[in-house]
Amino acid sequence: MATEKAVVLLSGGLDSATALAIARAEGYHCYALSIDYGQRHNAELQAAKRVADAGNVVEHKVLRLDLRGIGGSALTDQDIDVPRHPAIGIPVTYVPARNTIFLSLALGWAEVLCAWDIFLGANAVDYSGYPDCRPEFVRAFEQLANLATRAAVEQRGRFRILTPLMQMSKAEIIRTGSKLGVDYSLTVSCYAADERGLACGVCDSCRLRARGFHEAEISDPTPYRC
Q: Has this prediction a pTM greater than 0.85?
């Protein structure tokens, strides 16, 4: 069992809630980090607060970084529609460099905290094909983290990017989280959730989530608009 600090990137979605539960089960003192990046809705940030509260984290920090200034994604640009059908290739819901930016912020806080482990709920099995959710990206960022930080250069610690969900199916993630007591009704995964957190039921994230609950044979607690 770990007795160290860990920074957990917490979006408010199913995967990050499970990653937090795993970190806690492994004995980490968890510091949750959520990013208000100008996403289409703040329902996921409200969900992140609920998940952090339920997870008894040491601290939940929300940083504001408006990626609408960069644009290029259906999750930040109101004039780009969230797709209602599976995309061919990388979908327009990809946010340019999002995980690179988020991990950089998590790394900065981790260095201040002397927390050598950073948890990311990335998954490369049941996912939308984002390039910054792949194992090779995570390995490259971990190498960068240990080249770019004073703490690592001075050999006070070595940073690790931990992705316990990377090779799990959505059903396996849900089963794992359920065993650890995750309340998935607190989470929001939908790319187009309304202000109440009600899911559209048709976007890629909703489809992956619904299929995961079906394959896990666990009741889906997701509230849908219709």
A: yes
pLDDT tens string 102-129: 999 999 999 999 999 999 999 988 777 8
Which two three-digit tokens encode residue 166? 């990377």
Break the chain into its structural domains and give their ranges: 5-216
DSSP string spanning 1-49? ---SEEEEE--SSHHHHHHHHHHHHTT-EEEEEEEE---S-SHHHHHHH
Asked whether 166 and 173 are in contact (CB, 8 A), the reply is no
User: Is residue 13 within 8 Å of residue 27, measured between CB atoms?
Assistant: no
pLDDT tens digit sequence for 169-197: 999 999 999 999 999 999 999 998 988 88
Q: What H or E segment, with its residue span, contains residue 149?
A: none
How many CB atoms lie under 10 A from the CB of residue 177? 24
Residue 206 DSSP symbol: H
Any residues with CB less than 8 A from the CB of 218 and at least 6 apart, and which? 174, 175, 178
Neighbours of 97 (CB within 10 A): 14
Which CATH number is 5-216 given? Answer: 3.40.50.620
pLDDT of 1 over the 70 cut: no
Q: Where are the beta strands (DSSP E) in 24-156?
A: 29-36, 59-64, 117-119
Per-position DSSP letters for 175-195, written without gaps between them: HHHHHTT--GGG----TT--T
d(CA 170, CA 181): 16
At residue 2, does pLDDT exceed 60?
A: no
CA–CA gap between residue 69 and residue 67 (Å, rounded): 5
